[in-house]
Amino acid sequence: MSDCLFCKIIAGQIPAHKVYENDSVLAFLDIGPVSTGHTLVVPKQHAENLAAGSVEDACALMTAIHDLAPKITKAVGGSGYNLGMNHGEVAGQDVLHTHLHIMPRKDGEPRNFVKQPVSQEELSKVAEMIRLAI
Ligand code: 5GP
Ligand code: ZN
User: What residues of the chain score a pLDDT lower than 70?
Assistant: First the structure.
């Protein structure tokens, strides 16, 4: 979809701190993280939400989450994580391209869903740490 933000990230037209990709999905850091290592995992095939996409893409997304969530959490020194998906604008979905949030949690960080200010340098550092651990 030419006017979709995440399709543009997938196509490399907009920069992002990418941490993982395969044929079906891409994972990159959220620009407004609620925790260190907050990552978005998206199917490469555009669909507005999980139910609008194929069941194969839904399975590929969950397969990636199963692999990535513990590794990303460990990479940032966390010991647990939240997974989240906002389905529909009324539920808080701002970007209408299916995405699942991985939000690692560690002691000493706020355990809420408020975006924390973060620099591009910090995001670069976190992305590199995660890439090395995957
Ligand atoms: P939603 O509210 O749709 O579930 O989540 C969309 C997420 O996309 C938000 O957490 C927001 O911070 C993130 N986001 C919005 N614009 C960009 C962007 O340009 N780059 C990246 N990496 N994340 C973005
Ligand atoms: Zn899209």
Answer: none
Judge if the beta carbon of residue 57 lies within 6 A of ligand 1: no
Q: Where in the sequence numbering do the catalytic residues fall?
A: 99
Taken in order of first residue, the domains within the chain and their CATH numbers are 5-133 (3.30.428.10)
Cα 13 to Cα 16: distance, rounded to the nearest angstrom: 9
Query: What would the pLDDT profile of 34-57 be if each residue is shown by its tens digit?
Result: 999 999 999 999 999 999 999 999
pTM attached to this predicted model: 0.98
Q: Does the beta carbon of 89 sit less than 6 angstroms from any atom of ligand 1? A: no
Among positive and negative, which fits the CA dihedral 129, 95, 66, 62?
Answer: negative
